[in-house]
């Protein structure tokens, strides 16, 4: 993927940012957008820092709709935070409008950029071993879901249609395997077989949603651990970021995806799959935190499928990495040719480990429920 650098002065002018340009640095966490931290210094020497992102138009085709969603959601959150006496500038993102009132700008090359105030005094993590911090991640995503429970979902557009529709994801995977555009299908035969052997799983939540047994809610849909800013002083989950995929969805997508990423004992692209496993203590810590915040609003059916959702979201993600590998790396940013296959392997190894630990996951969920009064 092409990496056009940010032009600080163009950004400054476009968003009317005060002060004198100081520094910028690239932040490399996400697989989709390109993110920078940009700093300006005022005449009094005081610095103001912003986060500037180039929107990936290959993934998000309509930046107007995307930013309407995000600003709608952050405005809603800002009101809630203010009403409970919280810190509006730190507990959610605050985007800046450009001169035309839109929350993004388009440069001469057709690229779109957005800008929000940087939140200070925080850290992010890609892996975690602290149960207390992961508990707090669960609390934070549960609280996020609660605060959006009354958001008018008809005002939200589907920024990526069928994003967590595992049946349509499976179809995309089979198409990629049949077309084999990259010519690499043979290299991934074991992974293709693994995904095919579990096709039935792909239907479970889709069917329950269709039959009305699971409710549609406003959900985040990308609840990776590194999408939470943790407060350096309190170690609490302070601010949820990466709001591109906030859409109507299942609570189970959010729970499952958090476990997929955060309760893995290895990172998402660990080449040594023997390091991959589900940490049961981390699973239980997250479930306790999530149920503490959101437990009262979940239905019995949602609670019943919590452990399954962790496996399903891991399966989905593995299938998406595999699909992209077969297609020739056209979706996720990759750093080397086998990157998507390596990522796929960690996900499928985690699925296999979760299958072995299904009973323990159920028992841990039951304990977390009892603690939350469910
Ligand atoms: C992408 O944008 P980022 O890196 O937080 C992807 C998620 C995947 C994730 C896997 C819009 O998330 O769906 O689960 O990579 N986001 C999009 O790490 O496709
Ligand atoms: Mg992200």
UniProtKB/TrEMBL annotation:
Q: Which SUPFAM superfamilies match?
A: Protein kinase-like (PK-like)
Q: Which residues form a coiled coil?
A: 171-198
Q: Pfam families, alphabetically?
A: APH
Q: Does the keyword Acetylation apply?
A: no
Residue stretches making up the Aminoglycoside phosphotransferase domain? 127-265
InterPro entries xref list = Aminoglycoside_PTrfase, Kinase-like_dom_sf, Pseudomonas-type_ThrB
Q: Which Gene3D superfamilies match?
A: 3.90.1200.10
User: Which keywords describe this protein according to UniProt?
Assistant: Coiled coil
Protein name (Swiss-Prot/TrEMBL): Aminoglycoside phosphotransferase family protein
State the species of origin: Candidatus Fimenecus excrementigallinarum
